[in-house]
Known about the structure:
The complex is a heterodimer of chains A (265) and B (353). Chain A is α/β, with parallel strands linked by helices and 265 residues long. Helices cover 41% and strands 23% of the residues of chain A. Chain A has two domains: 10-88 and 178-265, Rossmann fold (3-Layer(aba) Sandwich), CATH 3.40.50.300; 100-177, no CATH class. Chain A has twelve helices and ten strands. The radius of gyration of chain A is 19 Å and the shape is globular. The termini of chain A are far apart. Chain B has helices at 15-30, 34-48, 57-83, 90-108, 112-134, 139-159, 183-205, 208-218, 220-225, 230-255, 261-264, 268-280, 286-302, 309-323, 328-347, and strands at residues 5-7, 10-12, 169-170, 175-176, 179-180, 258-259. Chain B is mostly helical. In chain B, strand 4 (175-176) and strand 5 (179-180) form a beta hairpin. Chain B has a two-stranded antiparallel ribbon.
Amino acid sequence: MTDAAQSPGSEHLRCENIRVSFGGVVACDNLSLTVPRGKIIGLIGPNGAGKTTLFNVLTRFQEFDSGHIYYEGRQIDNSRPHHMVHMGLSRTFQNINLFGNQTTMKNIMTGAHNLMGDPFSAMFWLPGARKREKEAEDRALEIADMLHLVPELESIVGTLPYGYQKRVELARALASKPSILLLDEPVAGCNDEETAELKDLVFKVNRQMGVSVLLVEHDMSMVMQVCDYIYVINFGANLAEGTPEEVRKNPDVIAAYLGDEEDQA
Amino acid sequence: MAQITQTNGLFQQDDSARDRLNAVNACKRRFLRQDVTATLIVFAALVLVPQLPFVKGWMLSQASLAIIFIIAALGISILVGYTGLVSVGHGGFLAIGAYTSALLTKYYAVDLVVGIIAATLVSAFFGALLALVFLRLSGAFMAIGTLGFAFFVGTVVNNVPIFEGRDGILLDDNVVLGMEIGDFGFYYVSIVTLAVMTLFVYCIVNSGTGRAFMALRDSENAAMSSGVNRLLYRTLAFSISAGITGSAGALNAHIVNYVSAEVFADIWFSVDILMAVVVGGPALLFGPYLGGIFVVMLPFFLEELADFAFIMKGVVLILVLRFAQQGVGEVMFRPIQNYRRRKLMEAGGAKVD
């Protein structure tokens, strides 16, 4: 990896002409987007636009018919989901997907799986593995403190309130030292207070840790406030893109969200 | 709220945040984990059994049998408790371990210790091999598949000449480091094996490898997104589990110096081991201890009603599955766990209601 590839603003994650169909239904048709390094990119669109499908394609949970995905300029079409975090790409889930009957601390530590080395040195507690474990623990504590999870570190996550669980999931994603974070509707179902808090956290993660972010979100206030650049998709195709200001004023976007005046008349 | 600024690539907390973390860490240290404590207490009791004045030879072999079941249950707990895969065929690995050690002892006159190690490795190898088959199945299909494996092993030892079927293989007295050992010696060999395997399981469960197993158990998708290679870790769990159970099999061959298809082709072994771990607590270190002792000692305490044990076991199993799905051990620890959690919340600065 060259320095040029690491510099801010260079291409970090890119997909090109992604097409996904389920039987006869085309969920994504020729979708392309680019996440530059160090930026927060929003991906929005009405219900059923194919946002989550594209998200799952980018994290390799979903197979696709045609198109290409590039990570730091390298094609990763054939990577498996568990490879992604080793490259530095970490994700959260739309419906919370935690290890429900484990403690918060264990959940966060599991997120650091990619830093633990091979399973054999870990299970025999070899010196190198113990050193890595200690580092992961320190980092987990720091992340927990940043996300205000310290009092609940030893609680079973399944018993925690919704907003807490969302933060635990974010903490788990951060534990792997990602360079890019893909968030699938991080504030869905959160109240105003929780939304404001998560918004600050996403901002902090991006600006202070330099992590690129791809945000799939329905909450317009959050998208408009934190994103540097926004892609709008509709019926599985690119509809518009631009800065939040441009997207807000784009007549196609307004039509897609609110319906055409002619339709309504 | 802690002010966090970036230094050297990570965050730095202000004093109040560091104080909070220190308080939490201190609190964690203060509570020796109850699971480990309970395990150590039972282990110490097992070490002292032969020293008790009223213990006779047959009691000792009964205690040895309990230890063998604890080891086997420890093995299956890796699979059932921590990785979330059900095996109803671990008796097959017990048999593989037993015949490995028995054949080596008969034809090469190897040391008992060598026999146990060889049994562990051979079982682990077969475990890894079979994982490639079983992991293609899921849920109940996998359970049935493993049951088929136990029957398969039973048929093989019954019919392939080298295993000498129902006539069985009679072994010489056990030899460790060139010395013949009696019942007491054998008991301590079992204890040492138990100690090694318990430590091994403890190390796995409290390592990143164990976390990966538990991640696969609780959510496959979340595990994969955390970078866990599903096939690799499930195969590993299967192999480790088979290996530990195999070591119990070797001990089971040498406890009476006799192996025969009559004993090892029986799938009740598989059922008993599985039941031990489900009753005791599959995801606890203490669970196999509790369950292993329960399964072995129940017929013993029922004395002439020993045949009744099957029914009793069934009743207990139903009660456990209905009222204590995490096992009896978990129910025992619950009050301590709640107390510990309350203390941690106080240390972390949370309001406790």
